[in-house]
């Protein structure tokens, strides 16, 4: 069996944009990455993981969350280890059918509240031939409110 050890996928570089309405809210964003664990390139099923984005505002606020492409593209994200690449993607729901995008491609997620936890669902497709290593990627989280 071949295993690739994956370190936690990073959701980073949170950015808050000022509200368009007369009332302004102050919000903080705390993304927590996805730790996929060990990937077996011979396994017949994909490897799934879940992360979280916590958004806390001082008043109930409506916002939209977009995720950047990281090292790949919205439709084909990938983690890297040197020159090696391991494909994966991020999804808005546990069914992993709708790709979480950047507002131009894929879908964004909208919510309202003072403290909101948004799960981020990740999937690494099965049977990718990659050398054993630690693979990482960083994805920008953009919160617009």
* Largest sheet data: 7 strands, mixed
CATH topology: Immunoglobulin-like
Distance between the termini: 47 Å
Overall shape: elongated
CATH-scheme architecture: Sandwich
The SSE string, one letter per element, is EEEEEEEEE
CATH class: Mainly Beta
Given helix and strand content, the structural type is mainly beta
Q: Would you report the number of β strands?
A: 9
Radius of gyration: 16 Å
Q: State the helical fraction.
A: under 10%
Oligomerization category of the chains in this entry: single chain
Count of structural domains: 1
Task: Give an overview of the whole structure.
- The protein has 145 residues and is mainly beta.
- The protein has one domain (3-144): Sandwich (Immunoglobulin-like), CATH 2.60.40.1090.
- The protein is 0% helix and 54% strand.
- The chain has strands at 3-6, 10-17, 27-32, 37-40, 47-67, 77-81, 84-91, 109-124, 138-144.
- Strands 2, 3, 5, 6, 7, 8 and 9 form a seven-stranded mixed beta sheet that branches. Strands 1-4 form a two-stranded antiparallel ribbon.
- The protein is elongated, with a radius of gyration of 16 Å.
- The model is unreliable at 1-9 and 11-22 (pLDDT under 50).
């Amino acid at each position: 069996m071949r295993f690739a050890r994956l370190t936690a996928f990073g959701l980073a570089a949170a950015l808050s944009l000022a509200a368009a309405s007369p009332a302004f809210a102050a919000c903080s964003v705390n993304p927590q990455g996805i730790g996929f664990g060990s990937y077996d390139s011979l396994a017949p099923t994909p490897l799934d993981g879940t992360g979280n984005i916590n958004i806390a505002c001082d008043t109930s606020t409506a916002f939209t969350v977009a995720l950047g492409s990281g090292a790949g593209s919205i439709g084909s994200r990938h983690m890297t280890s040197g020159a090696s690449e391991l494909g994966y993607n991020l999804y808005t729901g546990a069914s992993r059918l709708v790709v979480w995008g950047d507002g131009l491609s894929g879908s964004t997620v909208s919510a309202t509240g003072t403290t909101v936890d948004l799960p981020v669902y990740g999937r690494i497709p099965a049977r990718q031939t990659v050398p054993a290593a630690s693979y990482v990627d960083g994805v920008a989280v953009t919160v617009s409110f």
